[in-house]
Amino acid sequence: MDYKEVENYLRDYGADVGVYDFNGLIHLVAAALDNLERGHLEQDLVDCSSSLSEDNIKFLKKLIRYHEQCSDDS
Helix (H) and strand (E) counts for the chain? Predict the structure, then answer.
């Protein structure tokens, strides 16, 4: 698969599957975040910050809130 195929597959994942695998997708997101953290330059953050939509940012913040709540409960 080329980049565009992978992007489209991930964006549309779940449309044609019987059971939506949220946990599997979160693991792919975590792997991508590990890769970005390891390989980024500070300028990359500036250059690519507009690549995330407002909905992307809201959902990431929601994940962080739940993560923090679960960490506080431990």
Answer: 4, 0
How far is residue 59's CA from residue 26's CA, in Å, rounded to a whole number?
12
10-residue averages of pLDDT along the chain (74 residues): 89 78 90 95 91 94 94 75
Residue 44 domain-assigned (yes or no): no
Domain that holds residue 21: 1-39
pTM of the model: 0.76
Sign of CA dihedral 39, 47, 7, 2: negative
Q: Return the pLDDT at 4.
A: 94
Residue 45 lies in a domain: no
Residue 1 lies in a domain: yes
Same domain, 30 and 7: yes
